Amino acid sequence: MRQALAALLLALAAAPAAAQVAPFVVTGDAVSAPLDGLAGDAGRGARIVRNRETANCLICHTIPDPRETFMGEVGPPLAGVALRLTPGQMRLRLIDPTRINREAVMPAYHRIADLLRVDPRWQGRPVLTAQEIEDVVAYLATLRE
Amino acid sequence: MRHLVVLAATLMLGATASAGEVRAPASFLSPDLRALQDDPSRHPGWLWVDGGEALWREAPRSGRPSCEGCHGPIDGMRGVAARYPAVASDGALLNLEARIERCRTDNQQAPAFGYESEALLSLTAAIALRSRGLPVAVETEGAAAQHLAAGKRFYETRQGQLNLSCGQCHDENVGRRLRGDVISSGVGTGFPAYRLEWNTLGSLHRRLRACSLGVRATQLPYGAYDYVALELYLAARARGLPVESPGIRR
């Protein structure tokens, strides 16, 4: 009984997992269509980028904000990123940068397939939801200098 | 064509040069922490060293000899930590902690201390201290070769929800800031180490569990084979670097 229940719970947990990753089409080095057709919110995106529990972008990147301390330097500075990349290019780099460069260091924020030894707490879930990806893209698009 | 070959050769040289530059962890410490690591009178890790030296002399209740009863004074342990992990006579790969636990259960016929117990950390630190400054000299051939290969595979495999391999930080991004930390070459020569974040002494496996969690990968249990094999690979990367244990870390 216990086991059957556990199996059922597992199945329930696994079922929506695939649905947690939005489908997308890669054209060149970009995903031009917003995920699930969602509109991003730059204000929410700005908070997600700073969140140390979830996206934690600033562990590796700097943003032009003098109030932020201890930002990382593993990735390129994000200041002016909107002048270098289109929203579609940003979207693919967030979804899964290994689609552009197999050796990419940056984590894939919206992918669940082919990952090894994922801690059970995060199994079957992408780091960021489709809505969060769109919010972050909207925020990055404001970084014009 | 000729040019291509030269280009390929330089690219490869570049790659091996950066991968080969494994620097001592002390060289990444702030001057304050470095001074603390070098000063036994202020280094909190010496509390554990003192405790370990007492345990070395203490006979277990089983009536079997103390560590000293079999091995003599603890100074005789000079160089031992620099050779671990090592393959035991039965083929098992043992790190220093596992070696001590074996002596405890098999030779002293006493209950194991348990990984990360104060007693095991203390004995490990007291023994490791006897190798402080000596070059890491693990055996990597013969029976050790397959374990080394397993450790290398683990080190090079992307893992966790953040999909990072150890080398993507500890080879490719050495010296860069990851938040408040400067990424080091990721070797274990300072462990057990007193970590300010822990406020206590901790084993290398505790540190490895933190890196696993950092990439949101499954944290392996203390003493897990994959971590011991990884420990051997880290020691092979650190070959020739001085043992720093007990270290001081942020």
Describe this structure in words.
The complex is a heterodimer of chains A (145) and B (250). Chain A is mainly α and 145 residues long. Chain A has a single domain (35-140), classed as Orthogonal Bundle (Cytochrome Bc1 Complex, Chain D, domain 2), CATH 1.10.760.10. Chain A is 32% helix and 0% strand. Chain A is built from five helices and no strands. Chain A has helices at 2-14, 42-50, 81-84, 87-95, 130-140. In chain A, α2 (42-50) crosses α5 (130-140) and α4 (87-95) crosses α5 (130-140). Chain B folds into two domains: 22-39 and 141-249, Cytochrome c-like domain (Cytochrome Bc1 Complex, Chain D, domain 2), CATH 1.10.760.10; 46-129, Cytochrome Bc1 Complex, Chain D, domain 2, CATH 1.10.760. Chain B has ten helices and seven strands. In chain B, the strands form three sheets. Chain B has a three-stranded mixed β-sheet with strand order 6-5-7. In chain B, strands 1-2 form a two-stranded antiparallel sheet. In chain B, α3 crosses α6 (118-129), α5 (96-107) crosses α6 and α7 (145-156) crosses α10. Chain A binds chain B through residues 58-60, 70-74, 98, 105, 107-108, 111, 115-122, 125, 127, and chain B through 157-164, 168-169, 172-173, 176-180, 183, 212-213, 216-219.
Summarize the structure in short.
The complex is a heterodimer of chains A (145) and B (250). By secondary structure, chain A is mainly alpha-helical. Chain A has helices at residues 2-14, 42-50, 81-84, 87-95, 130-140.
List keywords for this structure.
heterodimer; A: 145 residues; mainly alpha; Cytochrome Bc1 Complex, Chain D, domain 2; 0% strand; disordered N terminus; B: 250 residues; 2 domains; 3-stranded mixed sheet; two-stranded antiparallel sheet; 10 helices; 7 strands; 7% strand; globular
Outline the secondary-structure elements.
The complex is a heterodimer of chains A (145) and B (250).
Chain A: H1 2-14, H2 42-50, H3 81-84, H4 87-95, H5 130-140
Chain B: H1 2-20, H2 31-37, H3 46-57, H4 67-71, E1 86-87, E2 93-94, H5 96-107, H6 118-129, H7 145-156, H8 166-170, E3 177-178, E4 181-182, E5 193-195, E6 200-202, H9 204-214, H10 225-237, E7 247-249
Parallel strand pairs in B: 5-7
Antiparallel strand pairs in B: 1-2, 3-4, 5-6
Helix pairs in contact in B: 3-6, 5-6, 7-10
